[in-house]
C-alpha cells in the first residue's frame, strides 16, 4: 500500500452538500484567497514556484514558471483560462472535482488571477457535462453574492469577473490554443505558435491556460506553504494527484495519492483486478499515452518515472485491461476516436488517422496482411512530430506501443486471414 496521506484535493468530497458555499466556508473555504490578496502577485508566483507544482493537464510544466510568463504591464487586459474540456478516453478527474468541490476551483481562480494581474477568468467546460456546468454556475453565483467575486474583493480594491463557458464537445478544444479560438466564437483549431498565449492569447491579450486540478491545488499551497506541499510525492514531481482508475478493477474511481504511486499500489486501493483475471495492459495517462504491460506494475507514476519507462504521465487516467481484451481491437477503438476528433487542419493528422483506422478495421475484421503492420508503423512515423498539435502524436501512441509489446497479436490476425484464403498460400508457393 502507498504511504497514507491526509486527503487534500478530495478532502471535502464526502461532506454533505460539499458543493455548497456553506460547507466550503466551514472547511477553511476562501481563507487562502484572503491570505493571497493580502500579499503581492510576485509573492504568490514565488510560493507556487517553490512548491514545485506542475501542470496537472498532462504536460507537467511548472505552474509557477508559467504564471511568471505573464507580463507585468497593463497595456492590455490579462486573462486566466481554465481548461475544463475533459474529453480524452479514460480521463475523468476534473469533472468529479468540479461537481464535488466547485468552490475550490473558484478560490484557486481568485488566487491565480491575482497572481497574474488578471481581472477576468474563464472556465471552459466540456459541453456534454451539463450537470457540472450548472453546479459551477451555481457556485459562482454564491461566490458573487458573498463578495468573493466581483468588485473590491475583501476590500482590497481587486476586481475579478468569472465566466463559465460551455464548449460544444470537441476533443480538439482541450488543446489550449484551439480552446482559445472556441472561446472567441470561432471553430476550435490549434493556432501556430509562437506567439504563445502568454504574449497573445485570448483576444490577442496575455493569457495563461491552466488545468482544473492545477488551479484547485493553489489554495492548499497558499494556506499550508510550499514546504508542506513538497512533503508529498517525489522531488521533481511533488504533491498529491488524483488518479482516475477505470476498466477491469473491482472498484473503479478517483484515488488521491502522492505522485510516484505505482500501479501495483493503485490496484490494491481499487480492490485488485476484477474477477481475478490477470492484467494484460494499461495506460498511465489516458489513451494518448503509450501503453504499459504487467511488467510495468512498479513504475513510479510521476512525470519522470513514466517517461523513463517509455510513456507519459498525462492526466493519470489509468485504464486497466485484463487478458480477455484484444490489443488490436482496443487500439482500433482508440484510433477511431482520434479519426473522428481530428479537426482536419493539418494533412498528417487528417489523412493519417483516417488511414490508420481503415487498416486497423480491416485487420480486426480478419482481412489484414503482415505488410499492414509495417504500413501502420510507416503512417505513424509520418504523423509523429509532423502534425500541427499533439492530437496526431497521441493518436499514434497506442498503435506504436501496441505493436511494440503485442506484435504477435497483430500477426495472429494476419495468419487468420491467410488461413481463411488457402488459394493465396498456393499462389505464393
TrEMBL record:
Annotated protein name in UniProt: NADH-quinone oxidoreductase subunit F
UniProt superkingdom: Bacteria
BP terms from Gene Ontology: cellular respiration
PROSITE patterns cross-referenced by the UniProt entry: COMPLEX1_51K_1, COMPLEX1_51K_2
SUPFAM superfamilies according to UniProt: Nqo1 FMN-binding domain-like, Nqo1 middle domain-like, Nqo1C-terminal domain-like
InterPro entries: ComplexI_51kDa_subunit, NADH-UbQ_OxRdtase_51kDa_CS, NADH-UbQ_OxRdtase_suF, Nuo51_FMN-bd, Nuo51_FMN-bd_sf, Nuop51_4Fe4S-bd, Nuop51_4Fe4S-bd_sf, Soluble_ligand-bd
Every NADH-ubiquinone oxidoreductase 51kDa subunit iron-sulphur binding domain range: 328-373
Enzyme Commission identifier(s): 7.1.1.-
EC class name: translocase
Functional summary from the UniProt entry: NDH-1 shuttles electrons from NADH, via FMN and iron-sulfur (Fe-S) centers, to quinones in the respiratory chain.
Family: Belongs to the complex I 51 kDa subunit family.
Molecular function GO labels: 4 iron, 4 sulfur cluster binding; FMN binding; metal ion binding; NAD binding; NADH dehydrogenase (ubiquinone) activity; NADH dehydrogenase activity; quinone binding
Cofactor field: [4Fe-4S] cluster; FMN
Amino acid at each position: 500500500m502507498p504511504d497514507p496521506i491526509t486527503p487534500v484535493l478530495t478532502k471535502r468530497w464526502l461532506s454533505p452538500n460539499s458543493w455548497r458555499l456553506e460547507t466550503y466556508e466551514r472547511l477553511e473555504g476562501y481563507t487562502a484567497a484572503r491570505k493571497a490578496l493580502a500579499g503581492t502577485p510576485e509573492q504568490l508566483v514565488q510560493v507556487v514556484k517553490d512548491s514545485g507544482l506542475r501542470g496537472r493537464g498532462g504536460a507537467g510544466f511548472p505552474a509557477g514558471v508559467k504564471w511568471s510568463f505573464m507580463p507585468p504591464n497593463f497595456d492590455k487586459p490579462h486573462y486566466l483560462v481554465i481548461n475544463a474540456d475533459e474529453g480524452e478516453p479514460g480521463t475523468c478527474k476534473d469533472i468529479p472535482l468540479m461537481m464535488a468541490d466547485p468552490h475550490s476551483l473558484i478560490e484557486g481562480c481568485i488566487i491565480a488571477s491575482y497572481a497574474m494581474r488578471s481581472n477576468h477568468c474563464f472556465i471552459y467546460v466540456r459541453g456534454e457535462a451539463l450537470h457540472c456546468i450548472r453546479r459551477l454556475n451555481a457556485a459562482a453565483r454564491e461566490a458573487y453574492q458573498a463578495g468573493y467575486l466581483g468588485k473590491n474583493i475583501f476590500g482590497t480594491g481587486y476586481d475579478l469577473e468569472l465566466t463559465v463557458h460551455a464548449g460544444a464537445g470537441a476533443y480538439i478544444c482541450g488543446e489550449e490554443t484551439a480552446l482559445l479560438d472556441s472561446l472567441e466564437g470561432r471553430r476550435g483549431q490549434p493556432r501556430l505558435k509562437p506567439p504563445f498565449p502568454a504574449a497573445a492569447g485570448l483576444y490577442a491579450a496575455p493569457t495563461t491556460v491552466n488545468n482544473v486540478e492545477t488551479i484547485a491545488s493553489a489554495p492548499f499551497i497558499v494556506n499550508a506553504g510550499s514546504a508542506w506541499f513538497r512533503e508529498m510525492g517525489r522531488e521533481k514531481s511533488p504533491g498529491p494527484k488524483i488518479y482516475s482508475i477505470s476498466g477491469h478493477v473491482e472498484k473503479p474511481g478517483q484515488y488521491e495519492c502522492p505522485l510516484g504511486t505505482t500501479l501495483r499500489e493503485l490496484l490494491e486501493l481499487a480492490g485488485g483486478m476484477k474477477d481475478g483475471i490477470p492484467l494484460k495492459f494499461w495506460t498511465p495517462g489516458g489513451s494518448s499515452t503509450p501503453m504499459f504491460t504487467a511488467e510495468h506494475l512498479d513504475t513510479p507514476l510521476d512525470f519522470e518515472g513514466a517517461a523513463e519507462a517509455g510513456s507519459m504521465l498525462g492526466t493519470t487516467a489509468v485504464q486497466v485491461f485484463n487478458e480477455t481484451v484484444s490489443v488490436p481491437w482496443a487500439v482500433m477503438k482508440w484510433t477511431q476516436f482520434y479519426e473522428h476528433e481530428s479537426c482536419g487542419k493539418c494533412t498528417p493528422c487528417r489523412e493519417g488517422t483516417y488511414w490508420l483506422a481503415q487498416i486497423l478495421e480491416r485487420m480486426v475484421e480478419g482481412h489484414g496482411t503482415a505488410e499492414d503492420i509495417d504500413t501502420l508503423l510507416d503512417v505513424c512515423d509520418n504523423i509523429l512530430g509532423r502534425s500541427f498539435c499533439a492530437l496526431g502524436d497521441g493518436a499514434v501512441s497506442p498503435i506504436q506501443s501496441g505493436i511494440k509489446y503485442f506484435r504477435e497479436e497483430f500477426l495472429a490476425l494476419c495468419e487468420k486471414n491467410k488461413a481463411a484464403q488457402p488459394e493465396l498460400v498456393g499462389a505464393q508457393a
